[in-house]
Specification:
This protein has strands spanning 2-7, 10-12, 18-26, 33-39, 46-52, 57-59, 67-72, 77-82, 91-97, 101-102, 106-110. By secondary structure, it is mainly beta. Strands 2, 4, 5, 6, 9, 10 and 11 form a 7-stranded mixed β-sheet that branches. Strands 1-3-8-7 form a 4-stranded antiparallel β-sheet, with no helix packed on it. Strand 5 (46-52) and strand 6 form a beta hairpin.
């Protein structure tokens, strides 16, 4: 069984910052990919950022230059530093591991 515990969501003003964290535990031998997705009301879930065990990372074009994904392999955690937040970043953010496991989601609201 795999557990993903997310933290760090909340309400922030436009231009502000938030940091999301996801801690993974359970029956995972290797963390090939650790990433973040988001889903806004009425929209499909979309990739925000992903980190691979070979060191590669991918970002959605809409967040490039503003968001940074990082991982701590020793602690099995992945974080998403979000700077320069915009109202269109408002969504529920989900941690996603190895293309299989999802976190429960954490709400990010960007509003003045």
């Amino acid at each position: 069984q795999v557990q993903l515990v997310e933290s760090g969501g909340g309400l922030v003003q436009p231009g502000g910052s938030l940091k999301l964290s996801c801690a993974a535990s359970g029956d995972i031998l290797r963390f090939v990919s650790m990433g973040w997705y988001r889903q806004a009301p009425g929209k499909q879930r979309e990739l925000v950022a992903i980190s691979f065990s070979n060191g590669n990372t991918n970002y959605a074009d809409s967040v490039k230059g503003r968001f940074t994904i990082s991982r701590d392999n020793g602690k099995n955690t992945v974080t998403l530093q979000m700077d320069g937040l915009k109202p269109e970043d408002t969504a529920v953010y989900y941690c996603h591991i190895n293309g299989l496991y999802w976190g429960q989601g954490t709400q990010v609201t960007v509003s003045s």
